[in-house]
Amino acid sequence: MNAIQTDGLTKFYGRSRGIIELDLEVHEGEFYGFIGPNGAGKSTTIRILMGLIHKTRGSARILGKDISKEKEQILSVTGYLPSEAVFYPDMRGRDLIRLSADLRRKDCRKTSSDLCERLQLDPSRRISELSFGNRKKLAVVCALQHDPQICILDEPTGGLDPLMQREFFEILKERNKKGMTVFLSSHILSEVQRFCSRAAIIREGRIIASGSVEELTRTNAKRVTVRGTFDPSGLPDVRDLQISGDMVSFLYGGDINLLLSRLSRHQIMDLSLSEPDLEEIFLHYYTEGDEKE
Ligand SMILES: Nc1ncnc2c1ncn2[C@@H]1O[C@H](COP(=O)(O)OP(=O)(O)OP(=O)(O)O)[C@@H](O)[C@H]1O
Fold first, then answer.
1. Rounded to an integer, what distance in angstroms lies between the CA atom of residue 79 and that of residue 212?
2. Which residue in 26, 34, 138, 177 has a CA-CA distance of 20 to 30 Å to 208?
3. Does ligand 1 have an atom closer than 6 angstroms to the CB of 82?
4. CA distance 40 to 29
5. How, if at all, do strands 181-186 and 31-35 pair?
6. What distance in angstroms lies between residue 156's CA and the mean position of ligand 1's atoms?
7. What separation in Å is there between the alpha carbon of 22 and the centre of ligand 1?
8. Burial (CB count within 10 angstroms: exposed 0-12, middle 13-18, buried 19+), residue 14
């Protein structure tokens, strides 16, 4: 049984595209990243999974349960962190936390107070008095206090300062070790590279690549940085060329001997060849797509 499985999942808002023919497979216990730029369809996918909006066609299951028919069973074992949490402003944090626990008919006092302490959240304050980051922490407590089997997080780190982001990922990692599946959408690629074992890349509503983060980042291309006067434009498979003063930097996917022989004809002061990071690979997927169109 997969933690999340979608088959041909499609959503149109009127005539405009949300997501198209999305096939996702997230295994139980995985830490899975869902990467894509603004407007790619990440929130649309997540909102359909959480039953907040209806699909146009296709199907989706969470822990084997159909999202259209078994919503209540799904919600009782799922934690959800929306990208922008909107709460009743006059409520106090602790009342919201209790309401969220009551909806799941669970006593979550011990876990919620641990979470508040770790996230340094004062739950006695009114929601209207909380900063954006503190509202996010409140949403994290509501998403995790009932020890869900799967947690679906939409751009989770927006609004959290770096220390809190670290604590938040620590919590997720601990939960994941105990078996919780984590599915998070992000456009912070280093975050996905650091924490996720597998990921899917979504672009313009379609998944353009998926697999282990290692596979996705494995490429023959190297980031070449040269100090000196060098023009790589005659070389094959050169992308993302950046020139700044006497520094030339580009992604190179061609024959390394050819590169070395071209370089040897120039006065080079410094040279480095490094593995591209996920950010660059992502760009690579995008430019590939653009070339095909
Ligand atoms: N309520 C809506 N009505 C009409 N179109 C919508 C609506 N919500 C989303 N869309 C469109 O669906 C597409 C996917 O949007 P979605 O919010 O799912 O992307 P996203 O990947 O989550 O982006 P972001 O990172 O900016 O949150 C976009 O083209 C968007 O304009």
1. 24
2. 177
3. no
4. 26
5. parallel
6. 17
7. 15
8. exposed
What token pair was written down for 291? 């070339």
Domains and CATH numbers, the chain: 2-215 (3.40.50.300), 222-275 (no CATH)
**Two tokens at 254?**
């061609």
- Separation CA 177–CA 62 (nearest Å): 20
Task: Assess whether pLDDT exceeds 50 at residue 11.
Answer: yes
Tell the residue number behind the tokens 């690979």, with chain if given.
Answer: 281
- The ligand 1 atom at the shortest distance from the C-alpha of residue 16 is 5
Placement of tokens 């959503």 in the chain: 11
Q: What is the pLDDT of residues 31-81, one digit of tens each?
A: 999 998 888 999 999 999 999 999 999 999 999 999 999 998 999 899 999
Q: Give, using CA atoms, the residue closest to atom 28 of ligand 1.
A: 39
User: The tokens 């929130």 sit on which residue?
Assistant: 43
Q: How confident is the model at residue 214 (pLDDT cuts 50, 70, 90)?
A: confident
Does residue 18's CB lie within 6 angstroms of at least one atom of ligand 1?
Answer: yes
ipTM for this prediction: 0.95
CA distance 276 to 183: 25
User: What strands, in cross-sheet order, belong to the sheet with 247-252?
Assistant: 238-244, 247-252, 222-228, 268-274
- Give me ligand 1 centre to Cα 40, in Å: 7
At 238, give phi and psi (nearest 5°): -105, 130
Q: Atom 16, ligand 1: which residue's CA is nearest? A: 41
Buried b / exposed e over 152-162, threshold 16 CB at 10 Å, is: bbbbbbebbee
Rounded CA separation 23/152 (Å): 17
Whole-number Cα distances in Å, 165 to 78, 156, 162, 285 = 21, 9, 5, 27
Nearest CA to ligand 1 atom 7: 13
DSSP codes joined into one string, 150-173: EEEEESTTTT--HHHHHHHHHHHH
